[in-house]
C-alpha cells in the first residue's frame, strides 16, 4: 500500500488460494486499486491484463502523479502503470527475475531497486529497463528480501526468506551498484512471525512484525491461536 499525496491510498491485490470466503475465484484478478480517503470508495481499478498462469502483484511504488511501478512475484515481470492512460507497460519482462518483491526508487528517480526473493538485489534503469546486479560482499546476504525501502543512501530490507528473520540497512556505494556495509536493525524478535512489509515516515520505519503467512497449512487454513497484528517502529 502507498499513499499518493492526493487523499488516496493505492494498494495491490491479487487472487491467491489463501483467500477465505470466495466462491468464484476466477472473478478476482490481480491489479492496482485506489481507495479515496474522503469517500472511502474505490476510485480507480487497474486490473492487470490476464496471461496464462497465476499473477500476484506483491508490492508497488508511486513514482509521480501519473506513474506506479509494481512487481509480479509469481510471473516475474516489473510493470509500469500510467494512471492517466489507464494502461500497463512492461519495464522488465518475464524470465529476468525469479520472484521480484519489494522495490524502491533511487534518490534521483532514474533507477528502481528491485529485490528478487531468490536472486538478490538488482537495479533497473527506468529509461530502457536495463537490469544490473547490485554487488554484495560475501559476508552480507541479499536473499529472501520481501519489503524494500530507501533511507538516504541506505536500503532498508525486511528479510523473511533467510533465518533468522531480520530487518537490515544496507549502505550503497556512491555509484549505487555496490553494498558497502550492512547493519542489522532487528532480528529474531519475540514479536516476529514472518515480518513482511513496512513504511518509512521521516526517520521512523514502521513494519508488520507478524504477517502469519508462514502459518498456513497444506489446505490453506490458519491455526486458531494467532495473535493480532503487531506493528513495530525502528528509529533510523
Shape: globular
Strand order of the largest sheet: 1-2-3-4
CATH topology: Neuraminidase
Radius of gyration: 18 Å
Oligomeric state: single chain
Q: What is the top-level CATH class?
A: Mainly Beta
**Biggest β-sheet strands, sense, barrel:** 4 strands, antiparallel
Low-confidence stretches: none
Structural class: mainly beta
Question: How many strand elements?
Answer: 19
> Order of SSEs, N→C?
EEEEEEEEEEEEEEEEEEE
Describe the fold and architecture.
The protein is an all-beta fold. It has a single domain, classed as Neuraminidase (6 Propeller). The protein is 0% helix and 46% strand. The protein has no helices and 19 strands. It has strands at residues 2-3, 8-13, 31-36, 41-47, 57-62, 67-72, 78-82, 87-92, 100-105, 111-116, 120-125, 131-133, 145-151, 154-159, 166-172, 179-187, 198-201, 204-208, 231-235. A 4-stranded antiparallel sheet has the order 1-2-3-4, with no helix packed on it. The model has no long low-confidence stretch (mean pLDDT 94).
Précis, in short:
Helix content is 0%, strand content 46%.
Q: Key features?
A:
0% helix; 236 residues; globular; Neuraminidase; mainly beta; four-stranded antiparallel sheet
Layout of strands and helices, then pairs:
Layout (H helix, E strand, L loop, with lengths): L1 E2 L4 E6 L17 E6 L4 E7 L9 E6 L4 E6 L5 E5 L4 E6 L7 E6 L5 E6 L3 E6 L5 E3 L11 E7 L2 E6 L6 E7 L6 E9 L10 E4 L2 E5 L22 E5 L1
Amino acid at each position: 500500500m502507498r499513499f499518493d499525496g492526493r487523499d488516496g491510498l493505492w494498494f495491490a491485490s491479487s487472487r491467491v488460494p489463501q483467500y477465505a470466503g470466495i466462491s468464484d475465484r476466477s472473478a478476482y484478478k490481480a491489479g492496482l486499486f485506489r481507495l479515496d480517503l474522503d469517500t472511502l470508495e474505490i476510485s480507480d481499478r487497474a486490473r492487470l491484463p490476464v496471461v496464462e498462469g497465476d499473477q500476484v502483484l506483491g508490492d508497488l511504488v508511486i513514482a509521480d502523479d501519473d506513474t506506479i511501478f509494481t512487481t509480479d512475484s509469481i510471473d516475474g515481470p516489473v510493470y509500469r502503470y500510467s494512471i492517466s492512460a489507464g494502461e500497463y507497460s512492461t519495464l522488465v519482462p518475464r524470465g529476468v527475475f525469479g520472484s521480484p518483491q519489494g522495490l524502491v526508487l533511487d534518490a534521483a528517480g532514474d533507477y528502481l531497486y528491485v529485490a528478487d526473493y531468490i536472486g538478490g538485489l538488482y537495479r533497473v534503469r527506468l529509461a530502457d529497463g536495463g537490469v544490473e546486479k547490485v554487488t554484495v560482499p560475501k559476508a552480507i546476504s541479499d536473499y529472501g528480501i520481501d519489503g524494500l525501502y530507501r533511507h538516504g543512501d541506505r536500503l532498508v530490507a525486511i528479510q523473511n526468506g533467510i533465518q533468522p528473520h531480520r530487518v537490515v540497512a544496507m549502505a550503497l556505494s556512491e555509484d549505487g551498484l555496490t553494498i558497502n556495509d550492512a547493519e542489522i536493525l532487528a532480528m529474531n524478535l519475540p514479536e516476529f512471525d514472518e515480518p513482511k512489509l513496512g513504511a518509512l515516515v521521516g526517520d521512523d520505519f514502521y513494519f508488520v512484525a507478524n504477517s502469519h503467512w508462514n502459518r498456513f497449512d497444506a489446505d490453506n487454513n490458519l491455526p486458531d491461536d494467532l495473535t493480532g497484528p503487531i506493528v513495530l517502529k525502528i528509529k533510523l
